[in-house]
Amino acid sequence: MNASTVNNCEEKMETRKIVSGKLGEIEFSEADVITLSAPILGFPDLNDFILISNDKSYPFLWFQSVQDANICFILVEPDIFYPDYKPDLNKREAKILGAEENSEIKLFGIVVVPDQPKNATVNLRAPLALNMGKKLAKQVILDDDKWQIKEPLFKNQE
User: Fold this and answer.
1) Domain chopping of the chain, boundaries
2) 86, 82, 108: which is closest to 97 by C-alpha?
3) 26 and 17 in contact (C-beta within 8 Å)?
4) CATH topology of domain 15-152
5) What does the pLDDT look like over 37-73, one tens digit per residue?
6) pTM attached to this predicted model
7) Which of 28, 95, 108, 139 is most buried, judging by how many CB atoms fall within 10 Å of its CB?
8) Using CA of residue 26, residue 99, residue 89, residue 155, what is the dihedral sign?
9) Half-sphere exposure of 53 toward its Cβ, with a 13 Å CA cutoff?
């Protein structure tokens, strides 16, 4: 991922580089950084991430930590695999993310890929909620127990 720089009299955006254990060298600017309002469960010291997508990995995205180059989550939009996935966020969560309406927030499931990729699971109970306009994110725990932490990603592809 490359960030563009501004080379006029206005403020110049500095680019930074990290070498991801999964993705190699990544160049980004501070404007690309998404800040977590609360850490992802199990990763208490990581607050800053960048979201990376490319045509080769679609529909999967990478959520790369800026603070620890070895931490990179695989994300997916759950409704691609679960068309009926339309949970409601409570007003408190939306407020924390700086959203006036839930439509400003996009939900992503964190994917776990074991040795056999066909057995991959996605966390639908505690999705990552992102307000891309404000560059804020938070892992939310849904009240609805319809969705599980380890839903099979490829449930219909047996």
Assistant:
1) 15-152
2) 108
3) yes
4) BH3618-like (2.30.290)
5) 999 989 999 999 999 998 888 899 999 999 999 999 9
6) 0.85
7) 108
8) negative
9) 9
